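Consider the tokenized backbone below.
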């Protein structure tokens, strides 16, 4: 079975930084797009960033210029560098990977931005 395992979440002060990782494992022949979503309490899950197989990134307006998505195809891992964090960035962050005919999701990692 394909699994996505996230790490790197935690508590950080406003203006601080955090780096999230998500490693895919299992029977994987290739990964298309990868990305990150987030969901805050009472809110719908929203797209944060995606990265295509060729490395082309896209960002939500709310994080553009502050977050950076990257991927390491050899490690089957997608990263999200979160800089200049704001309290409104507080959420559970979920990674995803698109494989042939299906999307896979991680279990989520909590990011809390608070002073």
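A designed sequence for it:
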């Amino acid at each position: 079975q394909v699994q996505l395992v996230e790490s790197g979440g935690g508590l950080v002060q406003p203006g601080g930084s955090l780096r999230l990782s998500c490693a895919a494992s299992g029977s994987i022949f290739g990964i298309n797009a990868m990305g990150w979503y987030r969901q805050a309490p009472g809110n719908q899950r929203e797209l944060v960033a995606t990265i295509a197989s060729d490395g082309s990134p896209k960002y939500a307006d709310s994080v553009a210029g502050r977050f950076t998505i990257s991927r390491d195809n050899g490690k089957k891992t997608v990263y999200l560098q979160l800089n200049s964090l704001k309290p409104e960035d507080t959420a559970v962050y979920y990674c995803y990977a698109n494989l042939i005919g299906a999307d896979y999701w991680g279990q989520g990692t909590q990011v809390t931005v608070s002073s």
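The mean pLDDT is 96.
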